[in-house]
Write a structure and sequence with these properties.
Blueprint: H1 2-10, E1 22-26, E2 35-39, E3 47-53, H2 55-65, E4 78-80, E5 88-93, E6 101-105, E7 117-118, H3 122-142, E8 155-162, E9 170-173, E10 177-181, E11 183-184, E12 190-191, E13 194-201, E14 207-214, E15 220-221, E16 229-232, E17 237-239, E18 246-247, H4 252-256, E19 261-271, H5 304-313, E20 330-340, E21 346-347, E22 354-357, E23 360-362, E24 371-376, H6 392-395, E25 401-403, E26 416-422, E27 436-440, E28 448-455, E29 460-462, E30 464-468, E31 473-477, E32 493-501, E33 513-519, E34 525-528, H7 531-539, E35 543-548, H8 556-560, E36 580-585, H9 593-606, E37 616-622, H10 624-635, E38 644-648, H11 660-672, H12 684-693, H13 707-713, E39 722-727, H14 729-732, H15 737-752, H16 761-764, H17 775-779, E40 790-794, H18 805-815
Parallel strand pairs: 3-4, 3-5, 10-20, 35-36, 35-37, 37-38, 38-39, 39-40
Antiparallel strand pairs: 1-2, 5-6, 6-7, 8-9, 8-13, 11-12, 13-17, 13-18, 14-15, 14-16, 14-19, 19-20, 21-24, 22-23, 23-27, 24-26, 25-32, 26-32, 27-31, 28-29, 28-32, 30-31, 33-34, 33-36
């Protein structure tokens, strides 16, 4: 075994590669010899970072990175990697001048880990690399573990929470992760939470133990035990900090900057050989890193773990062991502490507005009695005091939905994005006529929306909207749920502010817009919308398909579905069946359906598609787009222009919804509470939230008894084939009595808060539907048509015709 180990030690290690050498110790000789594995050298992979942004700034960065080690070679801690593999992202912001900056982010949610590094200069790039290396060291220490060790569970870490002013008022705390809250003392002053930590050696041999503090500011602290570590005999115990309480805190500077909670790690390292844990100390990120050298604390890296300590901080790694190095067994254990320090609260103002935080103003409300303050949203993997996390629809895709931050975040901590109301005396005082309003000094970019959502103990409820006002956002809260217990701070009403991003593929709409669309990867596409360009593409095509959207949304996502869906087996798309994909976008709230039909005919004529054009034109229309298409074909001569119409979810027999807002609030509530039957892509959020903002827009023309539908049904037979695709959610999951009861309870809750104004929804949801239109109304068609429309019922809903296998297969079969 010694020879084999020696061979491994002599192996040459290439840059960014590592070797694991395993030594074997033989147990008592008998028939069944026992071998114990001990890890000698651990992998120390560099941190993978994605570089994006300004190329001039990135060139400086790459140059520094390629000469970062002591030998002039590439950094041993950091390397550039593709986005899908990256642990961090570095963005070079604001052009190629010296005024640019480097920004370090988490890829998952785009949160900044540190302040920006100013200057596209060699010094600025060097500082950016130094910070990346600092973070890399912190992350590798946090990940430190020994899978081949035999000491796991042999050292017990006991944590006690200090509940009173005296250190004797300590109670055992179970688990490995805790949320620690500041609390007011008898004088009303906020006090930091405190803990006591005890180590107990439950093994049968002496062990050296250290406690390493990993703070959210990327510091590594080793001072909780005298000298950094303590030697414990079997059965012996020791208290951290000499048995005195250890305060967990949110530092004043971070708290004043709006960071109300921090997450720190306490890491136990236990080993059979003495080691110098202080070798891995480093200060906060914005401070210079003090690298510990050999002998600075009286001990050299004479053990496996000690050598690893040196490797964590050293730029020049050696692959050869020291002559006096001993193999050691070791283990680690992690404890996490999230400390919460609330902002001060304020009474809801009646006379004038009040500032809750710089840039966040709470406007007066003449009758609501409550206190308010801002707080942070939970991270996805953690429960909050209210007993819930945000629903998957709001947290699974950060490119579509993310917290609307009212303050900056740092070190990965959540910033302020929640309004907390407590001691609420009269929640019913907030109504659509008397809303609670806030002004936030941040603009909404194009395609961005702000959604306020709360939880009432049973349901997630969209209780308002954000209105862009140029340089700021006005948040309008139209209802508050009844607090479960107004005496308890933990049951306060929390309103989460979520930023919802619509996907428009970079197109600005000048209605009505006829465009040519070329599908790309990942649902993207290229758009040609100038009339001359569209006309040229039409002239060169023989088979054309035209997409028309419904009352909410746009055509880009519909047209992108022509590429099909990846999978095993893949779902075929329509793009191979046609030479050209056209899209028609129109103003869909205040323009009569008949007028949009005439505008469609006009745009097609301008592109060269007039009666007798000699080409094949098939139309795919969603929802209200089907009514526009029918009027165009049946009343405007479109039957001489188009040869086939496919309608998906079109309310041919009328809609049960009186306003856009009623439908959007209901659909959004179903999705937030997991009651939509079909799994929605997060991209539907943009359309739903946009529709919520379109308050009081009536759907009069889609009323079953409207003059428009009466006239449409009396049209002459166009004598071209129609295909009707009707989503039927009962085909996905047959409705159970319990599920229907939950739906009815949700609708009743929306009505009780004046968020839903119609009374027909319970009747509507009692029959087969696609959550927007009943199957009967989708299937409706005038009698005597030749040919009679072909009807296909599919297991999807109104929002997933173009994103599910069922919807796309039905479409492909209709036109393929």
């Amino acid at each position: 075994m010694k020879a084999a180990l020696g061979t491994a030690r002599a192996q040459r290690v290439e840059p960014h590669r590592s070797v694991v050498a395993v030594a074997f110790s033989q147990g008592a000789p008998d028939q069944n010899q026992v071998y114990k594995a001990v890890l000698a050298v651990l992998p120390l992979a560099p941190l993978d970072v994605q570089f994006t942004g300004d190329e001039a700034g990135l060139a400086l960065l790459r140059n520094v990175l390629s000469h970062a080690s002591a030998t002039g070679d590439a950094s041993l801690f950091v390397r550039e990697a593709p986005g899908e593999d990256a642990e961090l992202r570095l963005v070079a912001v604001n052009g190629g001048s010296q005024d640019g900056s480097y920004r370090i982010l988490r890829p998952a949610d785009g949160r900044r880990l540190v302040g920006d590094i100013r200057g596209f200069t060699a010094d600025g790039a060097g500082q950016a690399v130094a910070r990346l290396e600092h973070i890399a060291r912190w992350m590798r220490i946090a990940e430190l573990r020994n899978p081949a060790g035999t000491l796991a569970g042999r050292v017990v870490v006991e944590v006690y929470t200090v509940t009173g002013d005296s250190a004797r008022d300590a109670k055992p705390a179970e688990g490995t992760s805790w949320r620690m809250h500041y609390a007011r003392d008898a004088a009303g002053k906020w006090r930091r939470p405190s803990i006591k930590v005890k180590l107990i050696n439950r093994s049968d041999r002496p062990l050296y133990c250290a406690l390493v503090g990993l703070t959210q500011t990327f510091a590594v602290q080793t001072n909780l035990l005298s000298g950094g570590s303590v030697r414990l005999q079997p059965g012996e115990e020791a208290w951290a900090n000499a048995g005195k309480p250890i305060a967990t805190e949110v530092p004043d500077g971070l708290w004043k900057a709006g960071m109300i909670e921090v997450r720190d790690i306490l890491k136990l390292i236990a080993t059979t050989a003495e080691f110098d844990v202080t070798l891995i100390e480093q200060g906060e990120l914005d401070h210079p890193v003090v690298t510990k050298g050999e002998g600075t604390r009286g001990l050299g890296p004479t053990s496996t773990l000690g050598r690893l300590m040196k490797r964590v901080q050293s730029r020049a790694f050696s692959t050869e062991p020291d002559d006096d190095e001993t193999l050691s067994d070791w283990t680690t254990q992690e404890l996490t502490f999230t400390t919460v320090r609330p902002l001060e609260s304020t009474q809801i103002p009646r006379a004038a507005s009040v500032e809750l935080y710089p840039g966040v103003k709470l406007l007066r409300h003449f009758s609501l009695e409550a206190e308010a303050r801002l707080t942070a949203a939970p991270i996805a993997s953690r429960d909050v005091a209210g007993g819930f996390t945000l629903p998957p629809l709001l947290r699974d895709d950060p490119t579509v939905s993310q917290p609307f931050l009212l303050s900056s975040s740092r070190g990965g901590a959540p910033g302020l994005s929640v309004l907390e109301l407590f001691d609420v005396q009269n929640h019913e005082a907030v109504t659509p006529e008397r809303p609670l309003r806030l002004e936030i000094a941040q603009p909404l970019a194009r395609g961005e929306h702000l959604l306020p959502v709360t939880h009432d103990g049973e349901f997630f409820l969209p209780i308002g909207r954000g209105i862009g006002r140029g340089d700021h956002v006005e948040v309008v809260l139209e209802a508050l749920p009844k607090p479960q217990d107004t005496r308890s701070l933990t049951s306060a009403v929390r309103i989460f502010f979520q930023k919802i991003v619509s996907q428009h593929f970079g197109t600005r709409y000048t209605y009505p817009l006829l465009a040519a669309f070329t599908t790309g990867g990942n649902g993207s596409g290229q758009v040609t919308d100038d009339p001359a360009g569209v006309r040229a593409k039409v002239a060169g095509a023989k088979r054309i398909v035209l997409y028309i959207h419904g009352i909410m949304g746009e055509t880009r996502a519909m047209a992108a579905s022509a590429a099909g869906l990846a999978g095993s087996p893949p779902i075929p798309g329509l793009q191979s069946n046609y030479d050209l994909i056209l899209t028609f976008d129109y103003e869909n709230l205040h323009t009569p359906i008949e007028e949009n039909a005439r505008l469609l005919k006009q745009r097609l004529a301008e592109a060269g598609l007039t009666p007798g054009h000699g080409k094949t034109l098939h139309v795919i229309a969603h929802s209200m787009g089907g009514l526009i298409s029918r009027w165009f074909i049946e009343r405007e001569g479109g039957n001489d222009i188009a040869q086939h119409l496919v309608m998906l979810g079109t309310p041919n027999g009328g809609s049960p919804w009186s306003t856009v807002e009623d439908w959007a609030v209901t659909a959004l509530s179903l999705g937030l509470n997991g009651l939509a039957t079909v799994a929605w892509p997060a991209t539907v959020l943009g359309g739903l939230v946009s529709a919520v903002e379109k308050v009081d827009v009536a759907l009069d023309q889609m009323n079953p008894s409207s003059d428009f539908l009466t006239n449409l049904h009396s049209s002459a037979d166009p004598r071209i084939p129609y295909t009707i695709i009707a989503g039927n959610t009962s085909l996905v999951s047959p409705p159970s009595a319990e599920r229907e009861k939950v739906r009815q309870n949700l609708l009743e809750r929306l009505r009780s808060l004046n968020l839903l104004h119609m009374a027909t929804a319970p009747v509507f949801f009692g029959e087969p539907n696609d959550i927007a239109v009943s199957v009967a109304n989708i299937r409706h068609q005038p009698a005597g048509r030749v040919p009679l429309a072909t009807v296909r019922e599919v297991p999807c809903d109104h929002l997933t015709y173009f994103s599910t296998e069922a919807g796309l297969r039905a479409l492909h079969e209709a036109l393929g």
